Amino acid sequence: MYLDDNNDTFPGPCFSGARASYDNNSGTELIYYIANYLGSPAPAFVAAAKPVIVDVFVCPGYRRMAPNLTSMEGRKCYLLNDDVDANPGSRVPPFGYPEVGGAPETAPLKLSELNKYGTPTTIFAITDVDKLNIPNPTVTWWTDLPYKPVHGGVRNELYFDWHVAAKRAW
């Protein structure tokens, strides 16, 4: 639905760590763009002081396994695919990427551009997140992550054709 309403362009630019909460200042988060498609109010109608948590965007496994979980506000609970190009010399983030540290903003791809890198059935869009697929403890939200994949030895991946498949974590 988002693609239909936005000229076949994916939501973004977004950071690769995706959270389930948003407010009217969360324009670098996937949930900001898709909240109203999940039955939540559009960001323009949400005050910055009172973030909305979109419960359908939270994996129950994450809720069970995340350390020190008292609220989902601000917690990264998924990981967006930030490079659909198999070429190691090129990085193509399908959801774009915000301007950071002087690096220019990258615009999100159109669905037709994704086909240069594979098919929507073979490229994942979103995956579960844990300390094993974010191994860098200097990432500011690393301490919020589950210690291991929340579905045992697999992570669930949502593909661009919107099917979900389990993928071995190791």
User: What is the approximate shape?
Assistant: globular
Q: Sketch the major β-sheet.
A: 5 strands, antiparallel
Helix amount:
10-25%
Mean pLDDT: 95
Quantity of strands, as a count: 7
- The strand line-up of the biggest sheet is 1-4-5-6-7
The Rg value, from CA coordinates, equals: 16 Å
**N-to-C terminal Cα separation, in Å?**
34 Å
Discrete helix count: 4
How much strand? 15-25%
Order of helices and strands: HEEHEHEHEEE
Structural class: alpha+beta
Low-confidence stretches: none
Write a brief structural summary:
With 170 residues, the protein is an alpha+beta fold. It has helices spanning 2-5, 30-34, 60-65, 111-114, and strands at residues 17-19, 21-22, 52-53, 76-80, 124-128, 154-159, 164-168. It has a five-stranded antiparallel β-sheet, with no helix packed on it.
Characterization of the model:
The chain is α+β, with helices and mostly antiparallel strands. 11% of the residues lie in helices and 16% in strands. It has helices at residues 2-5, 30-34, 60-65, 111-114, and strands at 17-19, 21-22, 52-53, 76-80, 124-128, 154-159, 164-168. It has a 5-stranded antiparallel sheet, with no helix packed on it. A two-stranded antiparallel sheet has the order 2-3. A hairpin with a 4-residue loop joins β6 (154-159) and β7 (164-168). It starts with a helix and ends with a strand. The relative contact order is 0.18. The model has no long low-confidence stretch (mean pLDDT 95).
